TrEMBL record:
Transmembrane segments: 7-25, 37-58, 70-90, 110-131
The keyword Transmembrane helix is assigned to this record: yes
Keyword Transmembrane part of the UniProt annotation: yes
Source superkingdom: Bacteria
Keywords assigned: Membrane, Transmembrane, Transmembrane helix
Native organism taxonomy: Bacteria, Bacillati, Bacillota, Clostridia, Eubacteriales
Protein name stated in the entry: DUF2871 domain-containing protein
Signal peptide: none
Length: 140
């Protein structure tokens, strides 16, 4: 359970840092348009901090961490969320600084972000499969 609390806490801190970075970086560069940086803040709060608080509460009732694939789920999900957050920052910084990217690099960033989202989706599926088995075990 301590691991889940720590993950939630770390993502909460990263979310706050990314929010401050978004606000200050855009202000410092006199940028007033929309940027991908704003997505970093919400993704880290919702998919990081809040998600792991929910996992913690569910784990308390159904002992998810006892499932053989629980640690694999943590690795897959966290990898996806970190990759996704990094690509949002990467794209957002280039947007704010008005850096012209080649179409190949733009596609690469989108592809990497897509891979991050795919890992998050796989992690969510793993989570629900683990939850399903854990609930069945408790009900048996």
């Amino acid at each position: 359970m301590k691991k889940l609390i720590n993950l939630s806490f770390i993502y909460g801190i990263l979310a706050m840092i990314s929010g401050v970075f978004y606000r200050e970086f855009t202000k410092f560069n006199d940028f007033t348009g929309r940027t991908s940086l704003s997505f970093t803040h919400t993704h880290l709060f919702v998919l990081g901090m809040f998600f792991f608080l929910i996992v913690l509460l569910v784990d308390k009732e159904f002992k998810l961490r006892e499932h053989k694939n629980f640690n694999k789920f943590l690795v897959v999900y966290n990898f996806g969320l970190i990759v996704t957050a990094i690509t949002f920052v990467w794209r957002g910084v280039t947007e704010v600084l008005k850096i012209q990217l080649s179409s190949a690099l733009t596609a690469s960033i989108s592809g990497i972000a897509g891979i991050g989202h795919l890992f998050i989706a796989i992690g969510v599926i793993m989570f629900f499969l683990i939850l399903k088995k854990s609930v069945e075990k408790v009900e048996a």
